[in-house]
Every structure is written in structure tokens, then in C-alpha cells.
Amino acid sequence: MVETTFFSHSETVRALNSLGDNIFVCDLDLRIVWFNDQAETLLHSIISYLHINHPLDLIGKSIAEFHQNPSHQRNILLHRLPYESTITLFDRFAASIVISEYKDDAGVKIGYLLVWRDVTERQKELQETKKLVHELSTVIIPTVIDNAILIPLIGTMNEERTERLVQRTLNYCVTNNTDYVLLDFSGLSELDNSSAQVLCETMTKSLALMGVIVVYVGITKQVVQWLMNLNLDPTIPTFATFRQGINHVVNLEGYSLVYEKR
Fold first, then answer.
1. Which residues of 215-252 are buried (b: 16+ CB within 10 A; e: fewer)?
2. This prediction's pTM
């Protein structure tokens, strides 16, 4: 247990120790003056990253030493309390922190109370979920033609998602000897100008340089409105449906579809 004379009542120490959160108390100069038993257990688990021999070695140290931008930290403590944020420590641990003023019995601010909730595992889960969403949002689907793929655009296309799609598409085409890319716009709910430009100009031209033919399918009135201000290549084949687009590719490859009755 950390001994301190900072608190005027011993009941305060017992109350803070009874809480399940990691609690740190700093004086007005941002020096750590106390932490509860839960926080001491946490510090023992990450002590190799703190360059100290024992958690008690932190007593008297300024929390500014652990902040990349101390002036920003001081501005928060002076003007934006209570303050809540999620931070990453040592590029490994995620913490949800809440900082508030600590006042004495007369209501005078004498320091700061910092509550640290370790959310490392939750952040890992969120990152895995985000990764899965990214993968699902950039789907590349093989078609009945071995050298042709379908890329369905679904939901909202923003700049980040568009750039990721372009990179994945180019890499896929290089490694899989792709000759045709059918870009399906029918599932889009929103497409901003910058994303439309990247999709229909940058990616299309890049694929053309690789010898890949791009075919636009799922072209609706809404899609036309999104694309009308772009400098599109008028020779790009466009179709209202995927079925029309894949039939076009079949014809280009010299195949013919034969329908058999069963």
C-alpha cells in the first residue's frame, strides 16, 4: 500500500482502494503523489516498460514525462476538465483515461485525479473487427470467366476505403493474370467526388496500363449523377446489369453461352 499525507481523511484512501479502477493522484505540479492498490498491481505488470525497479519509484515523478506533448497535456488540465480519452502506451497498451480535478474540503483544487481503465484486449477486438470489415468491404469475386473478376461496390465509398480497394485490386490483377475487371456500382449508397475520381480515373487508367479492361456495371441514374462531372474515358463499356456486362466479356473472349433445358 502507498503511504501518503496528501489526503486529509484516511477514509478517502480506503474508498479509492475499494474501487475496481486504477486510480492515480497528482499534485498541482503534475507529480504523482499516490496510487491505489489496483494501480500498483497494474504497474507491476508493465514495470519493464517504465524503466523503474518498483511502482513506488513513480512517486514524485511528473506525468508529463510519459506524454509526447506536455504543453498539450497542461492545456487540457487547465481548461478542459473533466477530460476523457483513449490513449496508447508504449505502442502496446490501450488505456481509457478520465482526468478530473481533486479538491479539498474547502472546495479548493489541490491536484488531479486520473482513472486508468486498461482496455488493451477490447482495443485488440475492435482492431480485429475493423480489419474484418475492411476485408469484407473490398471483396473481389471470381466469375465464370477465369480471367475476369467482379468488384461489388457496397455502401459508402470514402477516400480511405477507395484507396484500399485500388491497391488490393491492382495487386490481385498482377498476381492472378486478370484481363477484365467488372466494377459493379449497383450497391452504392454514397460516392463522394474524390472517391469517384480515384475509382473511375486513377484505378481505371492504372488497370489499362496493365492491359486490363474495365467494365462498369450496375449503372443507374444515381450513379450517372455521381460520375457525370468526371473526365471519363468514353470507350469504357458500361451496362445496367452485371449479366449484360459478363455477356460482353464472354463475347470479347470469343465464347458463347449455350442454354440447355433440363
1. bbbbbeeebeebbeeeeeeeeebbbeebeebbebbbee
2. 0.52
